[in-house]
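Researcher: Next entry in the queue.
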Amino acid sequence: MLQPFRSGISGGDFRQRALTKLTVINSLLGHPVLQHLHIKVGDKAELTKAFTQNDVVTFSDLTGDTNPLHLNEDFAKKSRFGRTIVHGVLINGLISAVLGTKMPGQGCVFLSQEIRFPAPLYTGEEVTAAAEVKRLKGSIAHISVSCQVKEIGKTVMEGTVKVMVSDS
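Model: Structure for this entry, 168 residues:
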């Protein structure tokens, strides 16, 4: 049975840690090939951002999502939210940023997601996107994700994603 081992790299930043797990996978020819996964169950990463109304308008321009709930303060005041809210997909973009830049990192491929938006995010609120590896199966990582406004303990997005982990 293959056992996890530690690489000779050590130090602060998550990307500099080289916790590597060897996993046997089948190549196209059906022969076992060793693949190096640079993550392990329990690894975590996060990033923090406060979206501005300009970010929301730019996102709307790029995607064509002109829902007035995000863009029109007068319209949004009459809604259950009381003011404009950040697009859910823009919030979800923070998860993509965590996964692609911090953990698992460069080269990972987003395969699927199941997410919920239990509360709105308002422009100017500082939101922290967090990810934690819950399970590894071959080169597929099952990761728990959330976005929270820590200052007031509000979760604005939560769920799970599957990503294919790069072997480099």
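Model: Residues 1-36 have pLDDT under 50 and may be disordered.
Researcher: Noted, moving on.
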